[in-house]
Design a protein that fits this description.
Keywords: Cytochrome c-type biogenesis, Membrane, Repeat, TPR repeat, Transmembrane, Transmembrane helix
Structural class: alpha+beta
Largest sheet: 6 strands, antiparallel
Order of helices and strands: HHHHHHHHHHHHHHHEEEEEEEEE
CATH topology of the largest domain: Serine Threonine Protein Phosphatase 5, Tetratricopeptide repeat
Protein name: Cytochrome c-type biogenesis protein CcmH
GO cellular component, one term: plasma membrane
Number of strands: 9
Subcellular location: Cell envelope
Radius of gyration: 46 Å
Shape: rod-shaped
Strand content: 5-15%
Distance between the termini: 70 Å
Pfam families: Ig_CycH, TPR_CcmH_CycH
CATH class of the largest domain: Mainly Alpha
Number of domains: 3
Length: about 400
């Protein structure tokens, strides 16, 4: 607000200067002086004319005419007493009240029609942007009230107007739009953030989330591609699999939806309150499948590490189920983030490699587990692995990773 008052004071000062210029440059009233000078000039011209007329013999008594001319000049001189009695008006008498009037009128009009309260609220909201942003950056940000959402949107738009290269600001604006179901604004904001930082995982997730809600098939295809990149990069975030499951369910790919929901269950564990909600979603999808519903048969694999195993941060866990004879071609397989050990994973028909050969069709099986260190499934050199004994399907499986290729 300080800047506003300074700017308004400067504008009013300029207005006062423009108004005062005529008074400053105004000369004193010299009408009488001008009249006297004019009369003298006329008197001299007439004397010259009389002299010429006398020489030409047109005038008999020049002196008489000169006396009449002098008398006329004296008659045109104003009464000095009247002049002394007149009151001269000072320019400041008009200028000062006019200045006061302009100042009072300007600010009165602003307070009446200038929305000063809204401007002050806007400045206060803009100053409160950091605090509001922190609330939105965490998952609990959805709990922001409607007023806070409105304030945050106003503050963000103000900041982005002056700092259009702020990728975090565009990300926050996109999240607000998603919370308000404003898909068009969300896609536009997320797209700007993605253009600036296409490698940022949070921005990629936000952009995919906005695109997946679009009615445009091209947008949805791009969203699936981005989500696939996040999964391949081991970006462990429930929202990635939740979006994949949502998209698969909307496309009536119930098998894929079940697979993603089960991945989420493995990530959160049965102790999490969301576990039962995911179970209900899985049951619903299985009902939609009807006769082709996914079998409830699953293989639970408990994995442990030998002390000599060296872990790499970028490693991934590859679990594959094979026939009892140890065939190299797996019947089912899944790739998981490294996580901590020991850990347990569950595979079922959603992890089957071939549509016509389900995991549930096996009577007995064996499980192989490998720590993929380079992100390339085809290369095994230097990777640690382990395999289980042959067990009947439905029985728990234990694998210790203790060998190296």
């Amino acid at each position: 607000m300080t800047l506003f008052w300074i700017a308004s004071a400067i504008l009013i000062l300029l207005s006062l200067i423009l108004m005062g210029i005529p008074f400053i440059r105004r000369k004193n009233n010299i009408d009488d002086v001008l009249r006297d000078e004019l009369n003298k000039a006329l008197y001299k011209d007439r004397l010259s004319e009389l002299a010429e007329e006398t020489q030409e013999g047109l005038v008999d008594d020049q002196q008489e005419l000169v006396d009449d001319l002098k008398q006329s000049l004296l008659d045109d001189v104003p009464d000095q007493n009247a002049v002394r009695g007149s009151v001269a008006i000072s320019p400041m008498t008009i200028l000062l009240p006019s200045m006061v009037f302009i100042i009072a009128l300007s600010y009165a009009m602003y307070f009446k029609f200038g929305a000063s309260a809204k401007v002050e609220d806007w400045q206060q909201v803009s100053a409160n942007l950091p605090a509001l942003s922190k609330k939105l950056l965490v998952p609990e940000g959805a709990a922001l009230s409607d007023d806070e959402m409105r304030d945050l949107t106003l503050a963000l738009r103000t900041r982005l107007h002056y700092h259009p290269d702020d990728s975090t600001g565009w990300l926050l604006l996109g999240r607000i739009a998603l919370a308000n179901r404003d898909v068009v604004t969300a896609i536009g904001a997320m797209k700007k953030a993605y253009a600036m930082k296409s490698d940022d995982a949070d921005i990629k997730l936000g952009y995919a989330q906005a695109l997946i809600l679009s009615q445009d098939e091209l947008d949805q295809t791009l969203a699936r591609r981005i989500l696939g990149q996040l999964v391949q990069n081991d970006y462990v975030d429930l929202r990635v699999f939740s979006l994949l499951a949502f998209d698969a369910y909307e496309r009536e790919d119930y098998t894929a939806a079940i697979r993603y929901w089960k991945v989420m269950q493995r990530m959160i564990g049965p102790e999490d309150s969301r576990y039962q909600m995911l179970t209900r979603s899985i049951d619903n999808a299985q009902e939609q499948l009807g006769d082709s519903a996914v079998s409830n048969t699953s293989v639970s694999v408990s994995i442990s590490l030998s002390e000599k195993v060296k872990l790499y941060q970028d490693s991934a866990l590859i679990v594959s189920v094979h026939t009892a004879d140890g065939s190299p071609m797996p019947v089912a397989a899944a790739r998981y983030p490294l996580g901590s050990f020991p850990q347990t994973v569950v595979l079922d028909d959603t992890n089957s490699m071939l549509q016509d050969r389900k995991l549930s069709s096996l009577e007995s099986l064996m499980v192989r587990v490998r720590l993929d260190s380079d992100g390339n499934v085809a290369t095994k050199q230097g990777d640690w692995f382990g395999e289980s004994e042959v067990v009947k399907i439905g029985q728990p499986v234990t694998v210790s990773i203790n060998k190296q290729y």
